[in-house]
Amino acid sequence: MKLEEISNMTLPQMLGQTCKRFPERGAIYFYGQQINYQTLYGYAGRFAAGLRELGIEKGDRVAIMLPNCPQYVIAYYGILMAGAIVVQVNPMSVEREIEHFLSDSGAKALVVFGPLLPKAAGAPSSAKLVKKIIVELPPAAKTYEDGSVGFEAFVAGATAPTPQTDLSPDDVAVLQYTGGTTGRSKGAMLTHRNLVVNAYQSHLLMRSQETVQDRVLTVIPLFHVYAMTSAMNAGIVGGALLILLPRFDLEEVLQTIQAAKPTLFPGVPTMYIAINSHPKAVEYGISSIRLCVSGSAPMPVEAMKEFEAKTEGTIIEGYGLSEASPVTHFNPIEKRKPGSIGKPIPFTEAKIVDLGDGTTELAPGEVGELIVRGPQVMKGYWNMPQETEETIRDGWLYTGDIAKMDEEGYYYIIDRKKDMIIASGFNVYPRDVEEVIYQHPAVQEAVVVGVPDAYRGENVKAFVVVKQGMSLTEEELIGFCRERLAAYKVPRLVEFRNELPKTAVGKVLRRTLKDEARQQANA
């Protein structure tokens, strides 16, 4: 399809097209149960009808606070069919965060996982909701004292699906809240055009033959923009089977791979590293996976090599951010460069600009800020015009990531602007140090941060998880790094942990470790 055709489509139309092409194909696989595309479309239509009966109108916001499950996909597309806007809420959020998402978005209804109902109900703004729609796993017929309704009863009680609301590709489809590690979490306004185009862009880069149905292992959480696009929406474009798992449990993931034989596995580095560490991973048939897409955090090259040797599949590292729906870069399958995020995807421009003035374009090999432009770039931040103007300038999205481009047009993320360490006046990029640490055979995971030092400004500190059954000392690791890094990059401090703190998607919480290290240094 041409860009014009794709960019004039809404998300419900995208699902409708797949339903017409593959009505009997399996759409969702969840713990051995399966529904096809025709059934999925019908359920979403009834959910939309139920929302309309509640008084939900075009442009109203409806929040989803669910783990990966069929009800998530049904609610997501049902909300959009009703003309409303999906508000993504991380199920691991605390009451304070839930209150921010509900109050900032002005959500009128909430689809919530049953065990999380008390937490959601504790947010003051929940009293303003017209309805809380409760998902129980497994489905259960329950009544709720606060007037909430069970998901199954809500869908069953709706009238027959009515014609879809008249939508424009420029209408906001999703409020995707950013992490908020440096301040108040911001809602990126992603339009139907943004998300449809990015789904097609992603599908074109990952697809197999049209006659062969891909099976997408979807364990990265759908409330995260990466999974929403690269697993769910891109999967739907190609008529794939979405194999849903609510959380990453290594044994459960391996058992699911054995039973459902996925061909695509969008994940994050920590997931691939965990599979690497399992002594019997190969016995679970992980060779069914032909392609893995690694995103959300840099993929260590050594871990990539180890995973590919075990699966005989291919890991492609990409890059994106919430404000770009999220994908902007992808390694071409025919010519990968490990350690690189690849080239800009179709219909997308990128360049490296000077960190000082933000406008001077830099030559290949020079380090600066990565900026991007394309049809997937957000409309702006919800109710935050000043922040929007600072982030999108002359149509270019300023990513905040430090990067470089080589002579062949491949891009490399060096680090986040805010994560750069300045030691004795030298710039130290944590990823440079982490790549070396990962080369040590005893290292399973590693993160590097800067901690205050009265003389050097900052010291390099490494947090390390050692592989089971192996040993490693601080002196050994520092010596290993000293042989492979310039002196100012070598960690002065090493702390060993049994595990590293991670987000729900599996991304290591560097900021948490940095704050802990700074508190220790200042104590």
UniProtKB/TrEMBL annotation:
Annotated GO MF terms: ATP binding; long-chain fatty acid-CoA ligase activity
State if Lipid metabolism is listed as a keyword. Answer: yes
Pinpoint the AMP-binding enzyme C-terminal domain residues. Answer: 433-507
The lineage's top-level taxon is Bacteria
Q: How does it sit in the membrane?
A: Peripheral membrane protein
PROSITE patterns under this entry? AMP_BINDING
One GO cellular component term: membrane
Entry's family note: Belongs to the ATP-dependent AMP-binding enzyme family.
- Protein name as it appears in the record: Long-chain-fatty-acid--CoA ligase
Which organism was this protein described from?
A: Effusibacillus lacus
